[in-house]
Design a protein that fits this description.
InterPro entries: MetI-like, MetI-like_sf. The chain crosses the membrane at residues 54-82, 94-117, 123-144, 190-214, 226-251. It is a multi-pass membrane protein. The protein is mostly helical and 264 residues long. The protein has one domain: MetI-like (MetI-like fold, Orthogonal Bundle). The protein has 10 helices and no strands. It has helices spanning 4-31, 41-50, 52-86, 88-103, 106-116, 120-145, 149-157, 162-202, 209-218, 222-251.
């Protein structure tokens, strides 16, 4: 049985979105705005359905790069965070370079990466990984270092080894932080993939949805451009919702962050 709070959580955004789309469609019709300037939602939906065969292929490319980059970022971020938790020297040596990766604009270094790496897919993957890597590393490191000191003393009192402390105490304590970083990095991986595809697309290399957006802009097929943008936004929303569901399923039985707040 769906509760009132759950129904409201889905119903309110849906109504607001419908009203916004209706207002958009009405404004385009009432003002007589041509489609090459601003198409209406109905025309965008029609274009999406008509060009689905080509757009879906580009969508698959973008999704593959995004999830591959997210998987690499999650794996390396978790492993490095564990190393940082085990050795303060390693953390002080490597963490500044992770910060350098984070603060360097990907749009500035993407052309270099695409030039240096022969395989376009691999270059796109590297660009998306750079953007998605830092939130997982930073959040997980904070989580591992935020373990309850009293529980650490208790484990030491019972003679637990360093591996037992890590596996049975620190990693479970850091799980909410890791999952929070994963939710952030999911959207960032998509952004990194799109930015890299834009750079590759300007060089004439066909790839994902960003290339379709560029192609549509050059040909003044603005409805098709908006259709590709809808797919990008929808993909980002789907990734966030999937990772939020994963976080809820893993944390709902024992951590406060998964509390839906229905009892409040």
């Amino acid at each position: 049985m769906i509760s009132r709070a759950q129904a409201l959580r889905w119903f309110a955004p849906a109504v607001l979105g419908f009203l916004a789309l209706a207002a958009w469609e009405w404004a385009v019709w009432a003002q007589g705005i041509p489609s090459y300037i601003l198409p209406g939602p109905v025309q965008i939906a029609q274009t999406l359905a008509r060009d689905w065969d080509s757009l879906s292929v580009s969508l698959l490319v973008t999704v593959q790069i995004t999830f591959a980059a997210l998987a690499v970022a999650a794996s390396l971020g978790l492993l490095l965070a564990i190393l940082f938790a085990q050795s303060r020297v390693i953390e002080m040596s490597l963490f500044p370079y992770a910060v350098v990766l984070q603060v360097t604009p990907i749009v500035a270094i993407a052309p270099l990466i695409i030039i240096w790496v022969d395989d376009v897919r691999a270059a796109l993957l590297i660009c998306a990984w750079i953007v998605a890597f830092f939130p997982i590393l930073s959040n997980t490191t904070v989580g591992l270092q935020s373990t309850d000191r009293n529980l650490l003393d208790l484990f030491r009192l019972y003679g637990a080894s360093r591996w037992q402390v890590l596996w049975r105490l620190k990693l479970p304590s850091a799980m909410p932080y890791f999952l929070a970083g994963l939710r952030i990095s999911g959207g960032l991986a998509l952004i990194g993939a799109i930015v890299a595809e834009f750079v590759a697309g300007t060089g004439g290399t066909a790839s994902g949805l960003a290339y379709r957006i560029l192609e549509s802009g050059y040909q003044l097929q603005i409805p098709r451009m908006f259709a590709a943008l809808v797919l990008v936004s929808g993909t980002g929303i789907a990734i966030f919702m999937a990772l939020s569901l994963l976080s809820h399923l893993l944390l709902r039985r024992w951590h406060e962050s998964a509390d839906t707040g229905e009892h409040r």
